[in-house]
Each structure stands twice: as C-alpha cells, then as structure tokens.
Amino acid sequence: MPLIDDELDELKRCCENQIPDSKVVAAVPAMVRVEITKTTFKKIVCCLMFPNDYPNKHILIELKSKTLSDKLLSGLTKVCEDEAKKYLGRPQILKVLKLVAKFIEDNPLCSCSEEISTLRSMLGSEDTLKLSQKTSTINLTITKNKYLLKTKITIPENYPHDRVEIKTSDCNFPRVFKVWFIENSKELARRCVEAPKKPKPNAPKFEVKPSLLPAVRFLIENVQRYPEEKCQICKQILFPEDPEKVIHNEKAAAHVERVYCGHAYHHDCLILYMKTPPFQNGKNCPACGNRIYHEKWKVTPELAEARWATEQAKLRELGDVVEFIRDCTL
C-alpha cells in the first residue's frame, strides 16, 4: 500500500503538468479516473484499478469514449497493457496515461477511424486508400475500367465540427464530371456541419455530424458507376473503353450529359428526346420517371411543343416543294 499511496500522490501532483489536456477526476486506492481531452470528439476516459500483488502485476485498464470507436479503444487498451508490463515492480499509471495522450496527439485520424473502416469496405480491388497521420490526410484513388479519380482529403483538427477538405490531384473523366464529383462531395460535407439557412417547418434541431463518410461515399459510388452507365435512349455504354478517347467537347454528339436525377445520356440522344413529343408536364427520365432538369435545356413544355410544331410545319412545306419539283420533272 505505501507504493500505491506514493504513486497516487505523484499522480495528483504531476499528471496535469506532465500530460497536456489531462484532468484527474479520481485518485484513490479503489480506482483512478483521468480524462484526456484533445478536442470534444477526441476524448478518452482512462479508468485504472490496482490488482492484487500490484506492481508485480500490470495495472487493470479500461478506456472509455463516447465518440471514438470500440475497435480503436480495444486495440489501444491492449497496447497500454503491454506498456504497463514493461514496468512491473514499478509505478505504471503515468506511463500508461502518457501513452494514451501521445496516441491522441500522434493519430489525428483516430476521430474518424470507424468511417475509414467503412470506406475501405466499399473500395474495389484496384482502389487504394492511404493514411498520413502526420499531415492528417487521406489519399484516395478510385479506379473503374481504366477511369480514375485521385483525391486528397484533409481531416481538420476540430473534426467533425469542421468539415473535411477535398481536393483532386488527377482525374480522366470529362471536365463536367470531374467538377460534379468534387463540388457535390464538398456540398455534402458542408451540409453535415452547417445548418440550413431556411430549415423546413417542424424540422428537428440541427446537429453537426461527421462529413467524411457521406462525402467520400458519394465519390466512390459515382466513380464506380459511370464508366459502365448506359445512355437511357440508345442503350449504349456512354464512355469509350479507352479514357484517352473520351469526348470533352460539350457540343459533340457523343458527349455525355448527366441530368438532375443522376442518369446520363449522349448529347444528341438527350436533345432529340427533349425535342420529341409528348411534352405535357415536361419530359421525364425513361429510367426513373423523374422530371428531367438540365442547365442546357431550360425550355418550358409549351415552348418546346410550339417549336416542334414549327419544325414539323417546315418539314411538311419542304416535302411539298420536293414533291412539286419531282412532279415537274416527270
């Protein structure tokens, strides 16, 4: 007991000075409880108990957190136990607490470890996800049928209260798809941390939620989807097999156009469909039935029908002229 009493006295005197962001909640022979808080989301409560025959046996350790994953805490507990075993016969508490504090400091991505595990499970055999704890970044490469997107995702210090930052380093999709991938993932991340300016009536109070998973899941799902997507009109694969042959000219017949519902069309297939009756209540996507919205097609159903009628009248007039000329030459 004298050794335990001395260790508890040392803990009370030195812990908060030697271990940044620590707070001694309880330090009695029955239990030691210390909170280590780097941010509100990176907080671990260390509960330690003296076993019989301490310090010849390692101190009993239980790590708790409302935010960090159980899998991470379980692994860290095992590491702490191995560290305590190095000091059998000597005081162990401060050694263990310093290890926990160093882990939080050296592993900023611990705040999103569960999200990272989920994202790994979504990746294909050719995809890669590399972590850099030093820079608090994730380097992600998503590949599908020779098409790829490389991104660098930065996890901020105050995550998840601050959103992740996403930047593209390489992409061989057409420019409009590259912009759509990144800007939409950024928007999904923003919605996780910023309350809507005009919330819906009776909507629940806004709460910040982690932004890594929804933002990156969007990238993975869509990069894996579009290289095999078919035009909803001609039913042909939209993108060429060789990414070097992809069409970037936005007015070309085979340029790929994505509409609001997410389905895609060849440029001329979409234009022909939009200009062909019926026009009542607008044009709907053949795949999902949703109304088609596209920035290149902002014509009302009434105007579209009027234009079609005018074109048909011109074609009839042209047909009459051709028939008249043919009759005259007989």
Written description of the protein model:
This protein has helices at residues 2-18, 70-85, 93-106, 113-122, 175-193, 212-225, 267-274, 301-329; strands at 22-28, 31-37, 43-49, 60-64, 128-132, 137-144, 147-154, 165-171, 256-258, 264-266. It is of the alpha+beta class and 330 residues long. α1 runs parallel beside α3 (93-106) and α5 (175-193) packs antiparallel against α6 (212-225). It is elongated, with a radius of gyration of 31 Å. The N and C termini lie far apart (123 Å). Mean pLDDT is 89; it is low at 302-306.
Structural key phrases:
alpha+beta, about 20% strand, about 40% helix, 8 helices, about 325 residues, elongated, single chain, four-stranded antiparallel beta sheet
Helix/strand layout:
Elements: H1 2-18, E1 22-28, E2 31-37, E3 43-49, E4 60-64, H2 70-85, H3 93-106, H4 113-122, E5 128-132, E6 137-144, E7 147-154, E8 165-171, H5 175-193, H6 212-225, E9 256-258, E10 264-266, H7 267-274, H8 301-329
Antiparallel strand pairs: 1-2, 2-3, 3-4, 5-6, 6-7, 7-8, 9-10
Helix pairs in contact: 1-3, 2-3, 4-6, 5-6
Structure summarized in a few sentences:
This protein has helices at 2-18, 70-85, 93-106, 113-122, 175-193, 212-225, 267-274, 301-329; strands spanning 22-28, 31-37, 43-49, 60-64, 128-132, 137-144, 147-154, 165-171, 256-258, 264-266. The protein is α+β, with helices and mostly antiparallel strands and 330 residues long. The strands form three sheets. The protein has a four-stranded antiparallel β-sheet with strand order 1-2-3-4. Strands 5-6-7-8 form a four-stranded antiparallel β-sheet, covered by helices on one side.
